[in-house]
């Protein structure tokens, strides 16, 4: 008789084993399908799991547990099931509270569908316990060398614990013991294998994401390496076109474009017949990014809102470009299909925009350093220029014969002039210091040329105004040398500082020779090195709107003006060193 009972149990065990393998396949299939969904990936792969993610994980894996109940195999008034698979995975991924929550959801469901069943309460309690215990073991699992084996052992341990709880709580005990003898091995082995397989799928997702990230990083670096030469100068339509062409050729994107804040700089690929360089920005998506400074994604044509009816572009990601914390335009990546922008495309746009912004800043810094070196060299020349030095000394000697006190003052002015030249290494100096430099220079020149030159300075309110060093003195020197001295009777230079709300306008005006030709201060010119240097340094420090403006009339004089932000607008960390 005992042999027949054992034989009966073995038969049941084999049937349960086969049925659970078949039904576990359904759960694993669903798990695999879920693992391919972007939403599921974002929840599971989140490095810093927040409260919302934990709630979602609790619900998802609680539902997994319920699915495991419904795919269970009826046996002796109970169920041999895979409910523990989802619950234990919840604990391993989310910790004790996520495991506990998933266990409560699926455990209460198990109790509710069979109220009064002899294992209903025991199974509910054991499910909750399995979720909590697996969560407590999650840190050890995360540090394990072989995650597959660790997941299997934790699953087998938790299922063995479930059998113990059934024996403790289910009554009559004889029926509980008979049930455990049949289901223990199949449930422990199959469910542990299911947990291990699921965790292996997640491990594959992790590795796939890492490969994608590595591929994106390598692609971005390759693009950066190829585009580097085009950032040597100003980022204009030509350089933007070359960079867009490289990105287009190295990716499978359907179009790549750059804009500044007002117009298209370059567009390569589909839609280039109506997205033309120089045209105003066409899409509302781009205008929205320019307004908010945030990356935007359009998944259909209406989201892009191109004003051209035949535009083939259907989805896009647009990322802002920055230079020194100032948004200067956008990078746009397009596809011809709707809903075609992937997480990979978004990350690529972010990475490229970041690299391009960094390269633009480095180029700007390189230009500023170059200009600083030129200004330093010019200042050094002024310090050791024998003509300037000898002329100044001769002037002081000449004055000393008739007015020793004035010669002493001129010596102090000369010392001040050279001392201010040494401040070229500072990024910014107060306008008051720059005016002190100008006054020292003017005092020496007035002593040398007498009544032929007159310099007026109208600057009563200079607090909070800062300039790159050697900004005003070269402009005044230029006005005297090229404007006043060529005239037989000389002339006058006037410096005005005028506050206009958040900005201060500074003007250097002379009534000298003037000029009839025009020139671009952004283009290096051997005859106007000083003006080019001053203009470039102002634009580099304060933005393109703060460059110098020149108005000149032949025979009447020249006015050079520029605006700079006051300290109330731009807070400087270090003002004068």
Automatic annotation (TrEMBL):
Keywords: ATP-binding, Cell membrane, Kinase, Membrane, Nucleotide-binding, Phosphoprotein, Transferase, Transmembrane, Transmembrane helix, Two-component regulatory system. It is an enzyme of class 2 (transferase). It comes from the Bacteria. It is a multi-pass membrane protein. The keyword Transferase applies. Its main location: membrane. The chain crosses the membrane at residues 12-34, 55-73, 85-108, 115-137, 149-170, 182-206. Coiled coil: none annotated. This is histidine kinase. It comes from Calorimonas adulescens.
